Amino acid sequence: MPHSRFRPSSIARNARWLAAALAALVAVLLRALLQPALGDELPFIIAAPVSLFCALMWGAGPGALATSICLAGTLLPALPPDVLNRDGAVRSVGFSMVLVAACVLVARVNALRRRTDNPGATVDMPLVRWLNAALFGAVLIPATAFVLVGWWTYDRALLASRETVLQRADLVYQHARRTFDVAEKLTVEAALLTTGDDDLIRRHESEARQRLTDMLLGVPSVVNLNVWDALAIPVVRSDRAIDPTVTVADRGYFRRQAEQDLGFDLSEVLHGRQTGRELFNLTYRRPAVDGRFKGIVAVSLNPEYFREYYRAILAQNADVASIELVRTDGQILARWPLPAQGGTRVAADAPSLEAVRRGESSGVVYGPGQGAGGQRIAAFRRLEELPVLVVVSFDQAALMSGWARTMGIVGAMALPITLLLIAVTAIARRRVQLEQRAQHELHEQMRLRAASEKHALEAHRRETLATLTAGVAHDFNNLLAILSNSLHIQNARHPEHAAESQNAAMRRAVQSGTRLTRQLLSLTRRQTLRPEVIDLRS
After folding, report:
1. Hey, what CATH class is 305-401 in?
2. Which distant-in-sequence residues (6+ apart) come within 8 Å of 130 by Cβ?
3. pLDDT in tens, 240-269
4. Are 125 and 432 in contact (CB under 8 A)?
5. How, if at all, do strands 295-301 and 222-229 pair?
6. Percentage of residues of the chain with pLDDT beyond 70
7. 3-class DSSP string for 94-110
8. Phi-psi region of 295 (alpha: psi -120 to 50; beta: other; left: phi over 0)
9. What is the pTM (predicted TM-score) of this model?
10. In this predicted model, what pLDDT tens digit does every residue of 376-390 receive, in sequence order?
């Protein structure tokens, strides 16, 4: 029929889809209004609870529709937030798929609860549905908000920790840069000072040594300064007279400079053969007019100087796990705390070294901590024109401890309020359900009472009719008896008239009246119709 398409159930189904669409549009507008505060972060902070609410109230389909509308609003370039320029479209689509799955789950759980919660009730009151939605919302909305806020603040905390790591790395880099700038300047000045004939310099060694000593005044990072000729024999040194029998021909830093001009080069950490002290050398090839190898100038730097500085930084910054001065080949020049088990190299697959091999001069990398440590975040910076970099490592758990404390405080404040809302909503829902059940029982009792009264009235009516019928039947039966007796007497007195057709018609009338009387009496259950004996075997 034409009017069937406008049935109330059809209107209700269309209304829930329209309500879900309107709720999603409101969520999109609210998120756009929050753009100045949130930026492009948390695009679904409003959409998630709205979609779950729609799924709870009207089913999985409206919830999925609300999610789709919110996703479309997120991906539209004209509406904030703008996730396309941050390569966030894939993340948004993935989150939407998860949200649709959550809507389906919520709708299924709610449908199952409605079937099992009160199977005796035939009507689900709108107030109960809203209270169910409020109960689920008291759980879902705070939980969703807590997760989304935690996600957002975690992202912000990661950005803040990255900035902190870069700042500490820049501080350590500036210290290393100043130290090596001084060492490079000393190396160049010593090379220019010893450009003359080596034998002549040796004859005036005391004067040359004094000049080198004066150059090193107020430079605590330098152990000494040495000048070596092409045969690795000392020409002059800053701290004592030379020993012609000492040679560094077997040292790697000397051989590398002898093979090719490396500019400034760094040795590994070693122990000086004359000083016995721990040091590493910044080497520079001595200039020669003809370009031949004339020897090297080596400024011996003290690793303990760097370690003391690193120790002071760690003492003031508890979140810093370690600071390292590392050659690009992985050789550790200085580190605090000291390497575990006396190690002298970092792992070849260390993230910072891999980044340097890729040509990066600075950055932030992530990797596992040493020993039983957890995840580490490290910032590195390579010193220009030197095969060395500084690496500042942080324990990521320590960096994120502030975020964890904040979320713990938020959770501790939100949990009692959430539990209170759940308790109040559950109590109200229980009372409404009890009232609904009582009303249902009352309506059922009223229905049974009305049915009983109807049956009683019908029985009374039948009893009255039966009494009336019985009276009529008895009176009619009496009349038939008189008629039958009179006919019998008439036939007995005048047998010649017994065979007449009128007498036969009267006898048939009496018999028919008798059968009718029996039927009327059987209706009143006071006489059976006609008892007969039957043979069941036949």
Report:
1. alpha beta
2. 57
3. 899 888 899 999 999 999 999 989 999 999
4. yes
5. antiparallel
6. 91
7. HHHHHHHHHHHHHHHHH
8. left
9. 0.61
10. 889 999 999 899 999
Bigger pLDDT: 42 vs 331: 331
Query: In this prediction, what percent of the chain has a pLDDT beyond 90?
Result: 30
CA distance 48 to 98: 10
Instruction: Give the contacts of 97 (CB within 8 A, at least 6 positions apart).
Output: none
Alpha carbon distances (Å) from 499 to 144, 480, 490, 495: 107, 20, 12, 8
Class of domain 194-299: alpha beta
What is the 3-class SS of 58-92, one letter each residue? HCHHHHHHHHHHHHHHHHCCCCCCCCHHHCCHHHH
Rounded distance between C-alpha atoms, residue 305 and residue 86, angstroms = 44
If you search the block for the tokens 């980044």, which residue do you land on? 355
- Hey, what are 36's tokens? 């100045």
H-type alpha helices, 205-302: 205-215, 252-259
Q: How many angstroms separate the Cα of 124 from the Cα of each of 16, 431, 437, 445?
A: 16, 14, 10, 19
Between CA 303 and CA 325 the distance in angstroms is: 9
Q: What is the DSSP string of 349-413?
A: T-HHHHHHHTT-SEEEEEEEPSTT--EEEEEEEEPTTSSEEEEEEEEHHHHTHHHHHHHHHHHHH
Would the CATH topology of 194-299 be identical to that of 305-401?
A: yes
User: What distance in Å separates the CA atoms of residue 134 and residue 128, rounded to the nearest whole number?
Assistant: 10
Whole-angstrom Cα distance, residue 339 to residue 352?
17
Instruction: Give SS3 for 269.
Output: coil
According to the model, what pLDDT value does residue 158 have? 82
Q: Where are the domains positioned within the chain?
A: 7-160+403-434, 194-299, 305-401
Closest CA to 396 of 375, 380, 379, 372: 375
Q: Give which of 57, 59, 60, 51 is closest to 134, Cα–Cα.
A: 57
Amino acid of residue 189: E
Question: Which residue type sits at 347?
Answer: A
What the block records as the tokens of 68 is 């789709």
